[in-house]
Amino acid sequence: MVRFKNRYITVEISSPLIPENKPLSLKSKIFHETVLEKIQQLHGDFGVGAVRSGFLTKYCNENTRIAILRARHGPHKFVSSSLPFITKIGKLDVSLRTLHVGATLKHSFKFILKHQRAYLDSMWPKLKTNEERKNLEAAVMDFTKTDVTINIDNIA
């Protein structure tokens, strides 16, 4: 039996049109399809064929604008090389920045935890009430924003 090695690419999504304290209206399915379209455009059928078998959007947080993509080791280079060229997700103008490429989801979440803690510290002074602070902290530290329908569609 062969073990497949995966790489988890942590991406920061920034949009110049939407202020940083407002959440993006971003669905992981649209993000997933946009990345595949850009891989098709840059690397052709070979790139899409290599990436598609293990490609999933594991995590997408609209408040902190962070997403995790899973790709197989090897074809993950197609994914990471095409991310900077994505300028639109749906109707939203964006720019993507690769924050971290890790071998396990656990290490990617550890990295995100540190990154989101820094984000929370920077946003804390801008909020006025304790209720706003608690709501932001709950949204930022929520690691359950996974679109299960995409994951089930790609397994079959």
UniProtKB/TrEMBL annotation:
Alphabetical GO CC annotations of the entry are: nucleolus; ribonuclease P complex
Subcellular localization(s) per the UniProt record = Nucleus, Nucleolus
Alphabetically ordered keywords of this record: Nucleus, rRNA processing, tRNA processing
Q: Which domain of life is it from?
A: Eukaryota
Molecular-function annotations in GO:
ribonuclease P RNA binding
Among Pfam families, the record links this protein to: RNase_P_Rpp14
The record's listing under SUPFAM superfamilies reads: Rnp2-like (SSF160350)
Among the GO biological process terms of this entry, one is: tRNA 5'-leader removal
What is the first-listed, main subcellular location in coarse terms? Answer: nucleus
Q: What role is this protein assigned?
A: Component of ribonuclease P, a protein complex that generates mature tRNA molecules by cleaving their 5'-ends.
Q: Which family does it belong to?
A: Belongs to the eukaryotic/archaeal RNase P protein component 2 family.
Name of this protein = Ribonuclease P/MRP protein subunit POP5
* Lineage of the species this protein comes from: Eukaryota, Metazoa, Ecdysozoa, Arthropoda, Hexapoda
